[in-house]
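Work Package 4 report. The design task specified in the project plan requires that, given a folded chain encoded as structure tokens, an amino acid be chosen for each position. We show below one input record used in the internal validation round.
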């Protein structure tokens, strides 16, 4: 059974960078699309970026364009979210989740989910 674990969150100053990792176990990641989501206090969970099983990338949040990138290393069973030029409004719990083959904007089609990692952008 596929399980996902996020890591790499933390406190960073505005303008700083973080790289989040989503490590999979229990099943090869290569047949799954992986989405990165975030949920800020009092807000709904939103899908940020997704990478398909073949490496196609979909960006769902305009404000991260040019700042966030998603990548995958199937040999390491890991998907990464590189976040640069971080802003206070990027503060949220970041989650990764899996869906088969292709990315989708339908959140209910994702599962399993990781436990989340907190990202706080503050001076």
């Amino acid at each position: 059974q596929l399980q996902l674990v996020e890591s790499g969150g933390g406190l960073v100053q505005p303008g700083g960078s973080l790289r989040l990792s989503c490590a999979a176990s229990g099943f090869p990641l290569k047949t799954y699309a992986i989405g990165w989501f975030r949920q800020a206090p009092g807000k709904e969970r939103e899908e940020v970026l997704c990478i398909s099983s073949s490496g196609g990338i979909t960006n769902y949040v305009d404000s991260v364009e040019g700042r966030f990138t998603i990548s995958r290393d199937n040999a390491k069973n890991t998907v990464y979210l590189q976040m640069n030029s971080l802003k206070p409004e990027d503060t949220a719990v970041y989650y990764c989740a899996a869906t088969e083959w292709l990315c989708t904007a339908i959140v209910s089609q994702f599962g399993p989910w990781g436990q989340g990692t907190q990202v706080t952008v503050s001076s």
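The beta strands are 3-7, 10-12, 18-25, 32-39, 46-51, 57-59, 68-73, 78-83, 92-100, 117-121. Validation will be extended to a larger panel in the next phase.
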